């Protein structure tokens, strides 16, 4: 049964409990505390983006501005985590985050839609010769989420917006895909790559809360595997 108030969102029991090392439970374990502590979310977001005085106003999970809405990408893509913020001069911005842990991006691709090409053209950040690569795994899922960010920025009149691809340093498949994806761009302003290690380090610079250590112990202490 889907969680209350999450109509259309793929957040449900027992899915979030079946595999606590999958990316969706990881999202909650990493970002749920920030959803309830927006001042901390603000300083951590400022740290990770290099922006000054970011004020996070909203943090959501499994978020789409409109599933199936032709103003966006017309499909059912959604960000694992969505962070909306304002800047000192009143500018509005957002980050749409896709979170991976052990996933390898090898899944099949969805039906291509003409709307994708329309959004890609309007964004103007893709190398034209790279479009065939972007329509296929392992880059296709990254591309669709990046397109959703571009469509959202335009349709909802945000001053800035970016798509964030987040994964642990040891996930070589994701690291390779992120590098290949970056090579398909002629402008990187709306695409960011974060590692889990970098996010945890930013958290530790701004809080000594026990939950951060517990998260790092669960998800990043790969040395414990070596001992097994």
Describe this structure in words.
The structure is a single chain. The protein is α/β, with parallel strands linked by helices and 228 residues long. The chain has one domain (21-227). It is built from ten helices and five strands. The chain has helices at residues 15-18, 23-35, 38-49, 114-123, 131-134, 140-155, 172-183, 196-206, 210-219, 223-227; strands at 55-63, 79-86, 92-99, 160-167, 191-195. A five-stranded mixed β-sheet has the order 1-2-3-4-5, with helices on both faces. Helix 7 links the parallel strand 4 and strand 5. Helix 4 (114-123) packs across helix 6 (140-155) and helix 8 (196-206) packs antiparallel against helix 9 (210-219). The longest helix is centred in the middle third of the chain and has 16 residues, at 140-155.
Share of residues in strands: 15-25%
What count of domains describes the coordinates?
1
What's the helix count? 10
What is the overall pLDDT average? 91
SSE order, one letter for each helix or strand: HHHEEEHHHEHEHHH
Radius of gyration: 17 Å
Helix content: 40-55%
Q: Roughly how many Å apart are the termini?
A: 37 Å
Order the strands across the largest sheet as they lie in space: 1-2-3-4-5
**Biggest beta sheet summary:** 5 strands, mixed
**What's the total count of β strands?**
5
* Strand-pairing-aware structural class: alpha/beta
Unreliable stretches, pLDDT < 50, 5 or more residues? 1-7
Question: Which word captures the global form?
Answer: globular
């Amino acid at each position: 049964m889907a969680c209350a108030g999450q109509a259309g969102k793929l957040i449900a029991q027992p899915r979030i409990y079946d595999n606590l090392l999958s990316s969706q439970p990881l999202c909650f374990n990493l970002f749920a505390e920030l959803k309830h502590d927006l001042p901390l979310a603000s300083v951590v977001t400022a740290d990770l983006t290099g922006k000054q005085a970011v004020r996070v106003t909203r943090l959501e999970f499994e978020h789409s501005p409109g599933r199936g809405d032709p103003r966006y990408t017309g499909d059912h893509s959604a960000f694992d985590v969505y962070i909306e913020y304002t800047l000192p001069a009143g500018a509005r911005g957002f980050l749409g985050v896709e979170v991976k842990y052990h996933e390898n991006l090898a899944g099949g691709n969805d039906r291509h839609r003409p709307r994708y090409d329309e959004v890609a053209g309007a964004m103007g950040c893709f190398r034209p010769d790279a479009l065939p690569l972007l329509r296929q795994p392992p880059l296709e899922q990254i591309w669709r989420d990046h397109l959703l960010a571009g469509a959202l920025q335009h349709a909802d009149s945000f001053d800035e917006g970016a798509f964030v691809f987040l994964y642990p340093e040891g996930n070589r498949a994701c690291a390779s895909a992120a590098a290949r994806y970056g090579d398909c761009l002629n402008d990187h302003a709306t695409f960011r790559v974060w590692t889990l290690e970098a996010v945890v380090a930013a958290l530790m610079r701004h809080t000594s809360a026990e939950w951060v250590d517990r998260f790092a112990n669960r998800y990043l202490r790969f040395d414990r595997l070596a001992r097994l």
